[in-house]
Prior knowledge:
Structural class: alpha+beta
Strand content: 25-35%
CATH class: Alpha Beta
Strand order of the largest sheet: 1-2-3-4-5-7-6
CATH superfamily: Gcn5-related N-acetyltransferase (GNAT)
Order of helices and strands: EHEEEHEHEE
Distance between the termini: 24 Å
Helix content: 10-25%
Oligomer: single chain
Amino acid sequence: MPVRPAVAEDAPAIVSLIGRAAPHLDTKAYANGRLPEGVVALVAELRGRLVGWLEGVVDDAYTGPGAPVPPPHGYVLAIVVDPGTRRQGVGRGLMEAFVRVAREAGVRWVFLFPEEGTGVRERMEFFEACGFEAVGDPGGEHPAMGRRVG
């Protein structure tokens, strides 16, 4: 599954993918063929079509709940896979690509907060299959999740 950094020309396809698969997510940062600044945007393609997108950050600032180690940390902000290509390795490919980017930036931990609502258990199972585990307050209903990467 080819995964690569997003380029400005991908913005319309990213907006379209989000509109189909996760219409509640805000796409303003991708308007007018732009990519948001300060984020890692990755895309996955299948047969020349964009079928997955991940947005994350690597920062030196966050030290709150879910950050059991000193920064820098990586954060997966959002991941979206086309419904017609789920369970084909797209999401895992995106997650592993972000982990590599974070590791190369000197990050020791990557964190995420599973989106609540319908399907949260399935999302948490997916993240666990990608090597993430509950951190911070594991007793919470939907705890922060982290993966040691360095």
